[in-house]
């Protein structure tokens, strides 16, 4: 299972959650198996810059393509807008909200609290 989480990349091995899912500059993709993170990849997405280039629909399509191409089945974030919630629901991607602090710990908490 792959989980996407917006992060503030500061060079540490344990970045913190970026509260801006749709405007995140970096997203980590955590591969999870047996309740543990087995792989962690940080990807520069620059959604903050891209957010205002075009319509909300085109921005949501950009995020949808990213999630699909990375095989993501869950998003862990602080919050997302109503349109993004609808898009994720349509894509059958689960979402865990109200995440803050350590991105790795937020992913671990989400897999503990959410049946896979």
Task: Describe the protein's architecture and organization.
It is a single chain. The chain is of the alpha/beta class. The protein has one domain (2-113): 2-Layer Sandwich (Nucleotidyltransferase, domain 5), CATH 3.30.420.130. Helix content is 34%, strand content 28%. The protein has helices spanning 47-51, 56-69, 82-90, 103-113, and strands spanning 2-8, 16-17, 26-33, 36-44, 74-76, 94-96. A hairpin with a 2-residue loop joins strand 3 and strand 4 (36-44). The longest helix is centred in the middle third of the chain and has 14 residues, at 56-69.
The CATH superfamily is known as: Dinitrogenase iron-molybdenum cofactor biosynthesis domain
Mean pLDDT: 90
Category by helix and strand content: alpha/beta
| Proportion in β-strands | 25-35%
End-to-end span in angstroms?
Answer: 8 Å
Order of helices and strands: EEEEHHEHEH
**How does the major sheet shape up?**
6 strands, mixed
Radius of gyration: 13 Å
User: What is the tally of helical segments?
Assistant: 4
For the record, the CATH class is: Alpha Beta
Q: Determine the oligomeric state from the structure.
A: single chain
Q: CATH topology, anyone?
A: Nucleotidyltransferase, domain 5
Give the low-pLDDT segments. Answer: none
Portion of residues within helices: 25-40%
DSSP strand tally: 6
């Amino acid at each position: 299972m792959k989980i996407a989480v917006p992060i503030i990349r500061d060079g540490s091995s344990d970045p913190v959650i970026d509260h801006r899912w749709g405007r995140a500059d970096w997203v980590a993709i955590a591969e999870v198996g047996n309740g543990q993170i087995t792989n962690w990849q940080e990807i520069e997405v620059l959604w903050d810059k891209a957010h205002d280039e075009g319509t909300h629909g085109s921005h949501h399509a950009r995020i949808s393509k990213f999630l699909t191409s990375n095989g993501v089945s869950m998003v862990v974030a602080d919050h997302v807008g109503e349109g993004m919630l609808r898009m994720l629901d349509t894509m059958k991607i689960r979402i865990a909200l109200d995440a803050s602090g350590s991105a790795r710990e937020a992913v671990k908490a989400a897999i503990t609290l959410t049946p896979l």
